[in-house]
Amino acid sequence: MSDPLPGQWPIIGHEATIALLRHGLAAGRVAHAFLLTGPPAIGKFALASAFAQALNCTGEAAPCGQCRACRLIAQNRHPDVRVIQMPDDKREIGIDQIRTVLHEAS
Hints:
By secondary structure, the chain is mostly helical. 42% of the residues lie in helices and 0% in strands. The chain has 4 helices and no strands. The protein is globular and about 40 Å long.
């Protein structure tokens, strides 16, 4: 993910989804979960990463892409953001992945 302009989501397309997420952030009312679905390679991971940055951003205009939280999320190193990916040869995440997340959360 490149360094986005302050307050700009580094996403092409998905305007309606971004508007919905931004509205929730501005109102201080973000749902406890979101499901991003669609065909492969349309930007779901990039959108989720930008949203995680916006949620954790300490800059003036979220996501700033410059603060420590935004940089750590872009590097997949933020302690409060976990990425769970389905293995290429599977149709669902594995029980070991779930157990790891549960262990880390407790």
